[in-house]
Design a protein that fits this description.
Layout (H helix, E strand, L loop, with lengths): L3 H9 L2 H50 L5 H5 L3 H6 L2 E7 L4 E3 L11 H7 L5 E6 L4 E8 L6 E8 L1 H36 L1 H16 L12 H51 L9 H32 L6 E4 H15 L5 E6 L3 E4 L1 H18 L5 E8 L4 E7 L32 H11 L3 E6 L5 E8 L3
Parallel strand pairs: 7-9
Antiparallel strand pairs: 1-2, 1-5, 3-4, 4-5, 6-8, 9-10, 10-12, 11-12
Helix pairs in contact: 2-6, 8-9, 9-12, 10-11, 11-12
Length: 466
């Protein structure tokens, strides 16, 4: 619980606060490392200088200090030593005594210093924490005498210098951390402003459904994120507009056959009343035929709407498909449904791809039904499947009808779009829209143009392999 609580608080903090704390922590860590490194380097340098000074002084004393009796050591003027905050003594191993000036204090002595006096060591330097002094012992005398010069110097000046340095480094580090926190706050406030705009826009979309794009400035990562968010808003707006148009167009297309069917049914019901004029058998058969035709039209329209909605849903395409078999199945269905004496000129080359065989069959069947609808009796519909050499194949369906007007070419694949010539013919206006969506879902394209025969030419290009 003690460990998880700060983590929970950090997770609940705002992104701006976390950026500020992160900047402060990073600078604090860097300042701490630099300060520690600087302090250790200066400390080593100060103590090395102190040791070097002690060693030089000890060597000078050992070579220039000549005594023959203990009184000479005890009568040495201690004022010269006190001026440098230094203590000096002479160790005599044979007597086990340390001689030092009477008016001064003896330097600290350790076991290793006696080893120097006995000749077992050349020198020994150490820190006496009790007196806060740095002490050195060097061999004295070259005639075999067991003596050593001991010099101790106070470390107080060095410790004062290091203490002041630590205070300075602490103040500088604290100022650096404070400046880092201020800079982190400023950077977070400035850098996260686009994120704040994105958050506000997301909340606006969730609360109001307003899909207005966000203004973009700059070209950094946040600007690219804003561009992506605007693209997402545009896609959502386009999807909503397509759904709105689909519902509106579907309602318009359904209204006409429903109104006509309702009128015919009301007329049939009214003729059955005792006080109403009766209809002849021929009129009844004609009305019944109209009702059946309107039911067929409604059935076709609803089926196309369902197919279009299914094509709009994202699906994973992974089934190996023999396109020749798909085209042949669609051709058999088109022949059974053709009401006029239309023949088919078919040329097929092998082609396979990964896709949805039923959707591809529906797309080819829609092209064939469209060609049959506009072809005069006794004419031929040309159907071909051929390779084009760029890793794709094309399914071409050409009719001998009146063709497509130039003004209608850009709109033939739109939902519910019907040219003026096609408004009197059966159909829902969704067949070619389904063809286009099937092609796009399989990584291909669907195009319309004029056939050499003079009619319409529809081309379905699909990737795959022979």
């Amino acid at each position: 619980m003690i460990i998880l609580e700060p983590q929970g608080r950090l997770r609940r903090a705002s992104l701006r606060a976390r950026v500020t704390w992160l900047a402060a922590f990073c600078v604090a860590g860097a300042v701490a490392l630099v300060s520690f490194g600087a302090y250790m380097i200066v400390r080593k340098s100060v103590y090395d200088a102190l040791d070097e000074g002690l060693r030089s002084r000890a060597v000078t004393v050992a070579t220039g200090f000549k005594v023959t009796t203990p009184d000479e050591v005890q009568n040495y003027p201690a004022a010269f030593l006190a001026a440098g905050d230094v203590k000096m003594g002479l160790l005599q191993a044979n007597t086990g005594k340390i001689l030092y000036p009477k008016t001064g204090e003896p330097p600290p002595v350790v076991e290793e210093a006696w080893e120097v006096a006995q000749g077992e060591r050349g020198e020994f330097i150490w820190t006496d924490h009790k007196t806060e002094t740095r002490v050195i012992a060097v061999r004295y005398g070259l005639d075999g005498s067991e003596q050593a010069i001991v010099i101790a110097q106070s470390m107080q000046p060095q410790r004062t210098t290091l203490a002041k340095l630590s205070v300075v480094l602490l103040l500088i580090g604290g100022a650096g951390v404070l400046l880092a926190a201020i800079a982190g706050t400023a950077v977070a406030r400035t850098g996260l402003r686009p994120v704040q705009r994105l958050t506000e826009a997301t909340e606006r979309v969730a609360n109001t459904g307003d899909l207005t794009p966000i203004p973009v400035s700059g070209d950094d990562e946040l600007a690219r994120l804003t561009h992506s968010f605007n693209a997402m808003l545009g896609a959502v707006a386009e999807s909503q507009e397509r759904q709105r148009r689909l519902v509106a167009d579907a309602g318009h297309e359904l209204r006409t056959p429903l109104t006509s069917m309702r009128t015919n049914l009301e007329l049939l019901l009214a003729s059955e009343r005792p006080d109403s004029p009766t209809l002849s058998e021929e009129d009844k058969r004609e009305i019944q035929s109209d009702v059946r035709g309107q039911l067929d039209e409604l059935t076709t329209l609803i089926g196309d709407l369902v197919e279009l909605a299914r094509e709009d849903a994202p699906q994973v395409i992974h089934e190996p498909v023999d396109l020749v078999e798909v085209v042949e199945r669609a051709l058999d269905r088109a022949r059974r449904r053709a009401s006029n004496a239309v023949t088919f000129d078919v040329q097929l080359q092998p082609w396979t791809l990964l896709g949805d065989s039923s959707a591809l069959e529906r797309a080819v069947l829609n092209l064939l039904d469209n060609a049959v609808k506009f072809s005069p009796s006794g004419s031929a519909v040309r159907l071909s499947l051929r390779q084009v050499g760029d890793g794709s194949a094309v399914v071409e369906v050409a009719d001998a009808g009146p063709g497509i007007a130039d003004a209608d070419l850009p709109h033939v694949f739109e939902r519910f779009y019907r040219s003026s010539e096609a408004r009197t013919l059966p159909g829902s206006g969704l067949g070619l829209a389904i063809v286009k969506q099937v092609a796009q879902r399989h990584g291909g394209t669907a195009t319309a143009g004029r056939a050499p025969e003079g009619g319409a030419l529809f081309t379905l290009r699909l990737p795959g392999r022979p």
